[in-house]
């Protein structure tokens, strides 16, 4: 744009101040009362009013602001914008315009001194809308008329140059935001002022004499205002009128780089912002990328949208993008290159996991890295497991980056299915093909203890056993039966190995002890051995014995034939110890055999042989299997023998504990008898040697009465001892009983009958002693210095009439038909103390319908009874006070009390008589006051019936504030009051009283008070003494300062409230907390 004007020489009276800086600005401000703020379309202006409210005004709008002192209020603008003041028709306007950096260096547009470029907002405006103006198209730029120019003192400068003539010759430069204009000047020394506003001009650095000036670095499609003034030295004349021009449109500015708002493996969604259109609307955007090959850019999109989705891209690939904007003027420069990357793909399914190691309860699996990975990818593996029969499907068991995993806590010999998944930052792969692995079986448990089936045979055993309760997870494949002998040091020997659970062990020795045990084997290993079975094979009859040998010289009628099996007496015992031997004897070789000895002893004596006679003897052994064969025959002649058996001894009883035994001398069989042996015992089979000597008699002492004794005698000569004679029996006579045992004191619960008095009785129990042959008929009980007490046949007795709390020594003796037995050991027993005596009963408080009773202190419990007309229990407990309710007034009641403790229940006390009091009359209703005449009142109240014949009297009181005065007292139910001048706060109340026969009066509560009717206007001022007239009955009034019922009820309620609050605080502090 070329601006021209006619130069004019003007004489300036004063010099204007001028700053020598290149980027200086001259401000010309006119002080006015009205300021107009212009709000453009799409913008919001926020202002705080005087009352503190915040208002938001949306454009387009003009907001008038009044400034009383003419100062410019601060306008807060965002960064990148500036505010300018424009004067139009005498009104100043504030405009917010974008501030760009493409101004000419000589014409920077800083804001005014009193308008900061951007100040921090007021705290009340932090959350409100602010003015963020957008680019202003040309049609929104106001064409303002030339403003008036003023000096700093507000005086108009004289003589200004004419308005420059504009010859617009615009040419579009290569730069989209730079325009130039030429200004033709006809004189020299002309400063040029250029601005975006008609009132705010920017000083240019041109001060030459040329009349043509070229302005560069202007904004495209922007209205500018220019004026010129003449200068001579340091004196400047007034400026010319303002000329305006608008630069032409240009291609858009270079847009900002696009940004990625969404990306995936094969798509990228890009978004960008519209750049400055430089006066011409943007018609499209050109988006280019390098196809991920870092080569030349290729167009991928052209259109008017500000967002585009690029598809069919390669995963995990870097792409470079740039964008340019286009309008009707041309294409802008490309933005900076933006590089982004697509998302990677999920990894491929890995190979199935493989088994590395296995155990009873664990499996170690490992797997390989899936193919198709790029360098730097980090994979996370998830191992899933499915257990057979659960129905829960695959469950994750491991998640990590390792390529192996050991799973523990599994069940033995169980099949599990496994699969593995790989995952990276982009997702998870498909699971691998499921594989199945099993844990190893465990060792089986020990089989059952071997048992025998059938009878035990001498040379074989049929053994069976049970399968183990726990097979370890795999079937048992083999059982191993081991056998060992008890006294064999060679250990165990395997006798069977196979799948069966029974075996017949043969080729055994009869009568031999064997140990059997079994263990099993499976795929899991060998089990522990079972419990061993110790069994003995069945024995067989023993072999023949050796021939008997004579142990000494033959005697007359007896032969001793000792033999010893330990000295190879038996060829073979048959596998079982010999249980007995039998010696058979015969008079000749062909004669019949008879047994004369059978036993386990290895020697025997053949008796009753005829001296000098030949006898044949055979012996055979027997065990549990049977008898063996006879031995070879042994033949010998008899020699002198032992004496003959003695006859039964004669027993004579001398005392119950002493018996005299005597016997006759038997035949000696060729040798003289020189000794006798007597055996004595209480049982025939348990006789013991009691006497050994030459005398043919013996006296047995210290015997038990009424007991049977057995006795036998044996004679001995030089050959030996003869056989015992027949057994004699004697019974000792009965005697007195034995001493009583286990005497004890028992409680009442152990007896069938109850004790009459626990404090004076002792219950005894004892065990019945031995009667010594005579039935016990009674007992004697000795418990002190008194004569013993005789009782019948019983094992318990109750001693009565004893001293309470006293210790006794008790002894008991039994009595039978023979006599009295000895006393038992002394027993110390103590009687219980006596029950407590009844306490003294007192009346603590008496009411019309209640009596409060109290009695003495002590640890005992009490029972209170009332006589109405019979004694009835009204209280039983540990307390020492009791209040009897619901009684009749003025009535006499009789009470009795008894105490009881651990010793029992004490006696009842004598009757106590207590009387209830009389009840006072009830509260009356408020009295009624009627005004008969002036200063003449009649007070009436309800009349009560006499109470149980007692007359009723009434008291009428006058309340004057806090003072009380009694007006009337008597039996009447009305009262006339003369000559009274009532006051507004005077009130009347009445109460009833009961006059008892003894002269005592019981007064009830006062009725509610009632106010006197309002007084009439006074006719004359009389003295106050006239209002205090004397009552009709002549009773002088008296004053009563007692508190009223309402005050008493208020005090009682206040006390209860304080106690309740105190208890609540205590419970909160001590119980809840």
UniProtKB/TrEMBL annotation:
<feature type="domain" description="Fibronectin type-III">
    <location>
        <begin position="349"/>
        <end position="442"/>
    </location>
</feature>
<feature type="domain" description="Fibronectin type-III">
    <location>
        <begin position="645"/>
        <end position="735"/>
    </location>
</feature>
<dbReference type="GO" id="GO:0016020">
    <property type="term" value="C:membrane"/>
</dbReference>
<feature type="domain" description="Fibronectin type-III">
    <location>
        <begin position="446"/>
        <end position="540"/>
    </location>
</feature>
<feature type="domain" description="Fibronectin type-III">
    <location>
        <begin position="746"/>
        <end position="834"/>
    </location>
</feature>
<feature type="domain" description="Fibronectin type-III">
    <location>
        <begin position="164"/>
        <end position="252"/>
    </location>
</feature>
<dbReference type="Pfam" id="PF00041">
    <property type="entry name" value="fn3"/>
</dbReference>
<keyword id="KW-0472">Membrane</keyword>
<keyword id="KW-0812">Transmembrane</keyword>
<keyword id="KW-0677">Repeat</keyword>
<feature type="compositionally biased region" description="Polar residues">
    <location>
        <begin position="431"/>
        <end position="441"/>
    </location>
</feature>
<protein>
    <submittedName>
        <fullName>Fibronectin type-III domain-containing protein 3A-like</fullName>
    </submittedName>
</protein>
<feature type="region of interest" description="Disordered">
    <location>
        <begin position="1015"/>
        <end position="1038"/>
    </location>
</feature>
<dbReference type="InterPro" id="IPR036116">
    <property type="entry name" value="FN3_sf"/>
</dbReference>
<feature type="domain" description="Fibronectin type-III">
    <location>
        <begin position="920"/>
        <end position="1017"/>
    </location>
</feature>
<dbReference type="InterPro" id="IPR050617">
    <property type="entry name" value="E3_ligase_FN3/SPRY"/>
</dbReference>
<feature type="domain" description="Fibronectin type-III">
    <location>
        <begin position="541"/>
        <end position="641"/>
    </location>
</feature>
<feature type="transmembrane region" description="Helical">
    <location>
        <begin position="1048"/>
        <end position="1072"/>
    </location>
</feature>
<dbReference type="InterPro" id="IPR003961">
    <property type="entry name" value="FN3_dom"/>
</dbReference>
<keyword id="KW-1133">Transmembrane helix</keyword>
<comment type="similarity">
    <text>Belongs to the FNDC3 family.</text>
</comment>
<feature type="domain" description="Fibronectin type-III">
    <location>
        <begin position="254"/>
        <end position="345"/>
    </location>
</feature>
<feature type="region of interest" description="Disordered">
    <location>
        <begin position="431"/>
        <end position="453"/>
    </location>
</feature>
<dbReference type="InterPro" id="IPR013783">
    <property type="entry name" value="Ig-like_fold"/>
</dbReference>
<feature type="domain" description="Fibronectin type-III">
    <location>
        <begin position="835"/>
        <end position="919"/>
    </location>
</feature>
């Amino acid at each position: 744009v070329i601006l021209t004007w006619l130069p004019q020489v003007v004489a300036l009276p004063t010099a204007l101040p001028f700053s020598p800086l290149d980027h200086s600005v001259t401000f010309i401000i006119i002080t006015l009362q009205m300021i107009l703020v212009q709000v453009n379309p799409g913008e919001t202006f926020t202002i705080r009013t005087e009352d503190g409210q915040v208002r938001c005004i949306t454009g387009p709008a003009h907001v008038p602001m009044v400034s009383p002192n003419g100062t410019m209020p601060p306008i807060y603008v965002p960064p990148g914008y500036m505010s300018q003041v424009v004067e139009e028709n005498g009104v100043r306007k504030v405009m917010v315009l974008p501030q760009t950096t493409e101004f000419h260096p000589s014409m920077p547009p800083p804001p005014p001194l009193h308008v900061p470029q951007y100040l921090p907002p007021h705290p009340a405006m932090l959350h409100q809308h602010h003015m963020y103006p957008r680019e202003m198209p040309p049609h929104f730029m106001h064409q303002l008329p030339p403003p008036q120019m003023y000096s700093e003192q507000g005086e108009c400068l004289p003589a200004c140059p004419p308005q420059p003539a504009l010859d617009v010759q615009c040419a579009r430069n290569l730069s989209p935001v730079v325009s130039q204009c030429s200004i033709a000047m006809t004189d020299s020394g002309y400063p040029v002022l250029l601005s975006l506003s008609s009132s705010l001009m920017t000083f240019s650095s041109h001060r030459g004499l040329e009349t043509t000036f070229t302005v560069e670095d202007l904004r495209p499609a922007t209205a500018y205002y220019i004026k010129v003034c003449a200068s001579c030295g340091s004196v400047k004349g007034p400026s010319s009128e303002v000329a305006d021009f608008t630069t032409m449109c240009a291609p858009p500015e270079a847009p900002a780089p696009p940004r990625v708002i969404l990306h995936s493996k094969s798509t990228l969604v890009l978004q960008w912002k519209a750049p400055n259109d430089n006066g011409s609307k943007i018609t499209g955007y050109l988006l280019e990328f390098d196809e991920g090959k870092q080569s030349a850019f290729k167009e991928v999109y052209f259109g008017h949208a500000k967002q585009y989705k690029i598809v069919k891209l390669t995963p995990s690939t870097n792409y470079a993008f740039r964008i340019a904007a286009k309008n009707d003027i041309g294409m802008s420069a490309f933005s900076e290159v933006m590089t982004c990357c697509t998302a990677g793909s999920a990894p491929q399914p890995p190979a199935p996991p493989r088994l590395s190691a296995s155990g009873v309860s664990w499996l170690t699996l490992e797997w390989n890295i899936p193919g198709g990975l790029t360098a730097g990818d980090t994979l996370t593996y998830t191992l899933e497991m499915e257990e057979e029969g659960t129905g829960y499907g695959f469950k994750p068991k491991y998640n990590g980056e390792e390529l192996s995993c050991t799973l523990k806590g599994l069940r033995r010999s169980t099949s599990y299915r496994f699969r593995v998944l790989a995952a990276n930052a982009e997702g998870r792969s498909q699971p691998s093909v499921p594989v199945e692995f099993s844990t190893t079986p465990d060792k089986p448990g020990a089989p059952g203890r071997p048992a025998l089936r059938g009878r035990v045979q001498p040379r074989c055993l049929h053994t069976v056993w049970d399968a183990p309760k726990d097979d370890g997870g795999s079937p048992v494949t083999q059982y191993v039966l081991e056998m060992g002998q008890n006294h064999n040091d060679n250990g165990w020997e395997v006798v069977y190995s196979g799948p069966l659970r029974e075996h017949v062990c043969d080729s055994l020795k009869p009568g031999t002890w064997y140990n059997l045990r079994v263990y099993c084997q499976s795929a899991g290993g060998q089990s522990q051995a079972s419990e061993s079975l110790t069994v003995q094979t069945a024995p067989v009859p023993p072999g023949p014995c050796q021939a008997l040998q004579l142990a000494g010289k033959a005697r007359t009628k007896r032969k001793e034939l000792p033999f010893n099996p330990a000295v190879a007496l038996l060829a073979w015992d048959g596998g079982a110890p010999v249980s007995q031997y039998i010696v058979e004897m015969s008079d000749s070789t062909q004669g019949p055999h008879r047994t004369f000895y059978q036993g386990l002893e290895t020697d025997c004596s053949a008796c009753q042989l005829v001296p000098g006679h030949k006898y044949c003897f055979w012996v055979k052994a027997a065990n549990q299997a049977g008898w063996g064969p006879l031995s070879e025959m042994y033949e010998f002649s008899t020699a002198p023998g032992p004496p003959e058996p003695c006859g039964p001894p004669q027993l004579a009883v001398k005392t119950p504990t002493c018996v005299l035994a005597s016997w006759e001398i038997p035949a000696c069989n060729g040798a003289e008898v020189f000794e006798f042996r007597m055996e004595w015992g209480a049982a025939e089979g348990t006789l013991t040697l009691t006497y050994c000597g030459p005398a043919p008699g013996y006296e047995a002492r210290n015997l038990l009465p009424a007991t049977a004794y057995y006795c036998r005698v044996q004679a001995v000569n030089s050959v030996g001892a003869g056989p015992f004679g027949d057994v004699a029996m004697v019974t000792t006579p009965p005697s007195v009983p034995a001493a009583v045992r286990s005497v004890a004191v028992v409680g009442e619960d152990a007896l069938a009958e109850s004790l009459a008095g626990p404090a004076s009785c002792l219950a005894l129990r004892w065990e019945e002693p031995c009667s010594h042959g005579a039935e016990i008929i009674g007992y004697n009980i000795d418990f002190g210095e008194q004569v013993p007490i005789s009782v019948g046949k019983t094992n318990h007795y109750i001693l009565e009439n004893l001293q309470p709390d006293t210790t006794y020594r008790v002894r008991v003796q039994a009595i039978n038909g023979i006599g009295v037995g000895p006393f038992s050991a002394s027993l110390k027993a103590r009687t219980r103390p006596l029950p407590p005596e009844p306490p003294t009963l007192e009346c603590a408080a008496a009411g019309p319908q209640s009596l409060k009773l109290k009695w003495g202190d002590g640890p005992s419990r009490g029972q209170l009874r009332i006589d109405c007309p019979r004694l009835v229990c009204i209280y039983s407990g540990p307390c020492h006070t009791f209040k009897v309710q619901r009684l009749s007034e003025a009535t006499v009641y009789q009470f009795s009390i008894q105490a009881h403790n651990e010793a029992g229940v004490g006696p009842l006390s004598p009757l106590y008589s207590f009387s209830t009091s009389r009840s006072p009359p009830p509260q009356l209703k408020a009295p009624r006051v009627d005004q008969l005449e002036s200063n003449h009142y009649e007070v009436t109240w309800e009349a009560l019936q006499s109470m149980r014949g007692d007359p009723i009297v009434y008291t009428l009181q006058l309340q004057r504030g806090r003072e009380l005065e009694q007006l009337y007292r008597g039996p009447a139910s009305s009262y006339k009051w003369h000559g009274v001048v009532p006051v507004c706060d005077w009130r009347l109340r009445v109460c009833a009283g009961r006059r008892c026969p003894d002269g005592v009066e019981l007064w009830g509560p006062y009725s509610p008070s009632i106010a006197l009717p309002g007084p009439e206007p006074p006719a004359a001022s009389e003295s106050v003494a006239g209002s205090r007239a004397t009552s009709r009955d002549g009773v002088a009034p008296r004053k009563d300062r007692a508190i009223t019922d309402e005050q008493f009820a208020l005090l009682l309620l206040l006390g209860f409230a304080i106690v309740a609050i105190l208890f609540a605080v205590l419970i909160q502090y001590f119980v809840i907390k």
